[in-house]
Amino acid sequence: MVDAGDAVRWLQLTAPRGGPDDLSQLVARAAPAIGASEIVIYLADYAQSDLVPLLDAGLVRDRLSIETTLAGRAFTSLELQCAADDPDRIWIPLLVGCERIGVLEVVSPAAEDPTLEGAARELAVHVAHLLANRRAYGDVVERLRRRLPMQVAAEIVWGLLPPLTFATDDLVITAILEPCYDVGGDVFDYALNGDVLSVGLFDTCGHGIRASSLASLVVSAYRNARRCGLDLVDTAISIDRWVRSEHPNMFATALLAELDRRTGRLHMINAGHPGALLLRDGKAIRELPGPTALPLGLGHLTSRRPRVHEENLHPGDRLLAYTDGITDARNEDREQFGVDRLVDFVNRALNDRLPSPETMRRLVRAVVAYQDDELDDDATAMFLEWRPPHTPLAHLGDLAATGP
């Protein structure tokens, strides 16, 4: 019987004494404890197009395509993978909570032993948390995940973002951002406090450092207002005043939302932003109302306070919020990607029962490909699913069950 206990305990005792650069070697040294000859960490690059090996000295591995390899299938499906023609090698998704960060390759002559799967999964959970814990103390993980030099504006924005995916028994929220290395204006945030999930999606005007500086102010002002206990209207007013004070000639569009996860009651302010799509029973049924307030930074142009739209979600409902970089993307014939194409894409993804993060990854990849890999604007999308506990969990939202 294969047991991961000894490997996990050894890593728990040893890893804190090493730096991020030591992780690959430590994990490789734990291999014999689960009857493996090799264990290799692969991390998803920023674009989530490739899996890049974090190698111990002496090992040789190539980067692997997420789209076309068995390792990629483990990443996209969140399920263990093993090839019939290579039975000694298995691939296990690496998850931090419910955020997928890569895969673990385990090479073992006991790969067909049914107890190895459980041990490998247990070890993968611990390795993922070690990576999350140790990565902040060095740059090896960041360097590995970058295929291109990252611009300073993008460095600022990525440093602001929460984990791309978060899930509980009744909620899943996941988001994605492109272009990875040169973003500047789009940013998002979320927080679960008690029974209320707060979500903010922002699109600042301009590009480069000025846009990312405004994005930094906007998300910081949002967090400050939320943590001070302001309601949704006063939160919007607070952010608006900060933008006008510090960047008087700029503005940001925004979606600010609060969802009561007990009742499904949604409150939303749309500050000059594209309307979010409401999805139900595997299809997009309508767009939520458009702007209920002026863009943040322009509130002084009206005496009206921001208006809150209220919506009663049904169990299993999903919301897709996005920035105009998604729908405004144009192909070589200058035809926009548009809302209709967006709705069609999401409907097909829902019918395919893809995990929510994979839906977002494929959506952004489709938008990038539509514009021939050259986006004119940041393209950001956020997917929120409400599935209270009394509703059976479908595969699309069942990320919570895959976490530790």
UniProtKB/TrEMBL annotation:
Is ATP-binding included in the keywords of this UniProt record? no
Q: Which keywords does this chain's UniProt record carry? A: Hydrolase
Q: Which residues form a coiled coil?
A: none
Domain annotation PPM-type phosphatase: ranges: 136-386
Q: Name one Pfam family in it.
A: SpoIIE
Q: Which InterPro entries match?
A: Bact_Sigma-Reg, PPM-type-like_dom_sf, PPM-type_phosphatase-like_dom
Sample GO molecular function, one term: phosphatase activity
Q: What SUPFAM superfamilies does this protein's entry cite?
A: GAF domain-like, PP2C-like
UniProt-listed Gene3D superfamilies: PPM-type phosphatase domain
Instruction: Cite the PANTHER family for this sequence.
Output: STAGE II SPORULATION PROTEIN E, STAGE II SPORULATION PROTEIN E-RELATED
Name under which the protein is recorded: Serine/threonine-protein phosphatase
